[in-house]
Amino acid sequence: MSKTSGLTAFLMGGWTDEAEVSRNTAKACFDAAIAAGWDCELIEVDRDIANRLMQIRPARVFNALHGQMGEDGNIQGLLNLLNIPYTHSGVMASAIAMDKPMTKKVLAKSGIHFAEDIALTIHPDNRITTETSGAIVIKPRNTGSSFGVSIVHDGGEMPRADHWPQGTKLIAERFIPGRELTVSVLHGEPLTVTEISQDNAFYDYEAKYAAGGSQHQLPADIDSTTFATAMAWAALAHKELECRGVSRSDFRFDDDTGALVMLEINTQPGMTSTSLVPEQAQFKGISMTELMTSLLEAAQCD
């Protein structure tokens, strides 16, 4: 039997803010998998996805979902129950990585540095206050693609809690000035460090996904010690959380102080035409078709 035998279902869409990003990832990866000889079908995910999967009984799933439900362990648990092998990380790694405070709690024990947590008070009238000074970042506890991130500079106006959808759990961290860095890890091996530059206040949704929204320099033009540390921390995060397939860790580096901090680890990184993982893989001589085959061959349940 050929390694590409059986149907591969590409799960995409869903009902979160990241549905369109997911569709773009799925279509780019689907095209590469078809070119590599895999039998594939694009599946739009809705709340009847379990029945749909039981009907078509794919040999494996490429999980192209982003955000809640697809990236937080829920779809992974369903696929485990259905005994359908899937790409990317399993339940535990997905759930921990999606929850930013839990990620910091687990990985800080490994010596990885993170931004300082800032306590917020959310009042009944939706005012947000904090007792700290200096710039801070307020963001949802468990979303991706930089949705809902707000930077409040020292003395700036604090957003209200109703700026976010009702029920959103918010966290705050000290704002780290400096350069945006990222490292992709493929099957446990870090690929390279990319520096991201853009005209926006930070690497937000538009910078990530709009054509020309950001510029990427790889390898990043930083000192060798910082480069090696970013590579090592990304690989360590991937290992400690027991990630599978590909992950991407994002960092901030302050030239003035020499401080490097990890912002987050993504277990379902974007794979669109503007995304960082395919670009880093290409830099290492791995084509998009080879990347897809590598991930699909590694598909498994927990």
Q: Can you walk me through this structure?
A:
The chain has nine helices and 14 strands. The chain has helices spanning 19-35, 49-56, 74-82, 91-98, 100-107, 205-209, 224-240, 276-283, 288-297, and strands at 7-13, 39-45, 60-63, 117-118, 121-122, 128-129, 136-140, 150-152, 170-174, 179-186, 189-197, 215-217, 246-254, 259-266. The strands form four sheets. It has a five-stranded antiparallel beta sheet. Strands 4-9-7-8 form a four-stranded antiparallel beta sheet, with no helix packed on it. The protein has a three-stranded parallel beta sheet with strand order 2-1-3, with helices on one face. Helix 1 (19-35) packs across helix 9 (288-297).
The domain tally reads 3
Q: Report the strand count.
A: 14
> Could you tell me the mean pLDDT?
91
Q: Return the structural class.
A: alpha+beta
Query: Judging from the principal axes of the Cα atoms, what is the shape?
Result: globular
The secondary-structure element order is EHEHEHHHEEEEEEEEHEHEEHH
Round the Cα radius of gyration to an integer and report it: 19 Å
CATH superfamily of the largest domain, please?
A: ATP-grasp fold, B domain
Strand portion: 15-25%
CATH topology of the largest domain: D-amino Acid Aminotransferase, Chain A, domain 1
Main sheet attributes: strand count, strand direction, barrel closure: 5 strands, antiparallel
Percent range of helical residues: 25-40%
Count of alpha/pi helices: 9
Ordered list of secondary-structure elements with their pairings:
Elements: E1 7-13, H1 19-35, E2 39-45, H2 49-56, E3 60-63, H3 74-82, H4 91-98, H5 100-107, E4 117-118, E5 121-122, E6 128-129, E7 136-140, E8 150-152, E9 170-174, E10 179-186, E11 189-197, H6 205-209, E12 215-217, H7 224-240, E13 246-254, E14 259-266, H8 276-283, H9 288-297
Parallel strand pairs: 1-2, 1-3
Antiparallel strand pairs: 4-9, 5-6, 7-8, 7-9, 10-11, 10-13, 11-12, 13-14
